Amino acid sequence: MEHIISGVAQYENRQRARRTKAGMKNKLDGGGWSFKAPLGYKNTLTPDGKKTISPDPDRAPLVREAFETYATGLHTKEEVLRIVNRKGMRGVGGKRLAAETFNRMLKNPLYAGIVSVKSLDVAKRGNFEPIVSEETFERVQAVLSGRRVSVTPRKRHNPDFPLRHFVRCGSCDKPLTGSRSKGRNAKYPYYHCANKNCERKVSVKGEKMERQFVEFLKQLRPREEFIQLFRAVVLDVWNKKQSEAMEIRAALEKKLEELQDRKQKLNSAFVYDRAIETSDYQQMKAQLDAELFTAGVELHEARENELDIEAVIAFAEQVLLDAPHMWQLMSPDQKQRFQQALFPEGVQFSSEGYRTATTCFAFNGMEREIPAKEELVAIPGFEPGFWP
Fold first, then answer.
1. Sign (positive or negative) of CA dihedral 68, 71, 76, 81
2. pLDDT 10s digits, 91-123
3. For residue 188, what is the DSSP state?
4. DSSP three-state, residue 182
5. Is the confidence at residue 298, as pLDDT, over 80?
6. What is the rounded average pLDDT for all residues in the chain?
7. Cβ proximity of 69 and 80 under 8 Å
8. Tens-digit pLDDT profile for residues 138-162
9. Element (H or E) spanning 312, and its range?
């Protein structure tokens, strides 16, 4: 009898679980969302009393800005996270958004109005308002996966090989890797093809390969029509950046003012009204002092980051006119960003040297004499998708 009773109870539990799962699936198939709302949304009810979600008026604009900024491919996730945190983005408990939470947010299709739950085999258009467009969401996924060109520096464990994974083998078109080969008295850096099936593997000393890359950069010639419009373009970008900096600074100044007002009220409640115990006052004051210090530091950094437009234009013109010299002076991360901007589709290297089919549209195409036996011919190129 005990076995029979426990078996019946287990059967009923399974039936309830199946009914619950079926109810959840039906709700999701209809485009609804009855779970906890993600950051940027809030749980609400439809006019007929059904559970749904709607954009949070305070956080949704910051979520939208995060997606649109990262979709350009011009900023790292850390940079975008720092921007929205400075503008007031807060997660659970009012804490600054963590990197892991931000990464999950960028991958969540719910923000594009798509209900997707793999465990229930559901992928439907939601019946709630999306925060970002599907196009913006897809651009973000392309940047995250590397399918879309990004000029943010890729993190490398070894800064001694700035061309690693950027230059491709001229024989098999696989990215070259870098390592140190042991010589008689020391180890020497080499770039080489790691493809076992490559018929003509590339293996070149690091110093030689980078020296030839500098020579290759000397072939870049700025487009005359681009130089003529250059100042206007830079001023337009500067105005946008200045507007963003002013927004961040205004938000930080407002936050600092609010914290100072709260501290003044706390002191008044303790000193004059005697409405707070000493232990509570000390704890609340310590927390406010910490928040005031953080807000002050962030405001100082925001003011330090204001742009000097004349210096920006002078530097950019120098980059356009003297790319080889500038590349040599840059740090490893800056080199990776710079070479990706110059050659959106990368370059190939073989015994004949470097070649590419596409350069940044600010420069003329790089025409070179390629032997007839080579399949790839360097032709002038233009990639409009590189500049969002």
1. positive
2. 877 788 888 899 999 999 999 988 877 766 667
3. E
4. strand
5. no
6. 78
7. yes
8. 989 988 877 665 555 555 446 678 8
9. helix 309-321
Beta strand extents in the chain (DSSP E only):
41-45, 51-55, 114-117, 122-125, 167-169, 177-182, 187-192, 203-205, 347-350, 353-355
According to DSSP, the β-strands at 187-192 and 177-182 are: antiparallel
CB 24 within 8 A of CB 119: no
Pairing of strands 114-117, 177-182: unpaired
Least confident of 23-32, 229-238, 318-327: 23-32
Give the whole-angstrom CA distance, residue 77 versus residue 102.
Answer: 8
Closest alpha carbon to 365 in 177, 220, 178, 176: 220
The answer to whether the beta carbons of residues 338 and 327 sit under 8 Å apart is yes
Average pLDDT of span 337-363: 80
**Residue keyed to tokens 């493809």:** 195
Domains of the chain: 2-145 (3.90.1750.20), 161-388 (no CATH)
Residue 86 CB neighbour total at 10 angstroms: 20
Q: Which residues contact 215 (CB under 8 A, 6 or more apart)?
A: 324
Classified as helix, coil or strand, 52 is: strand
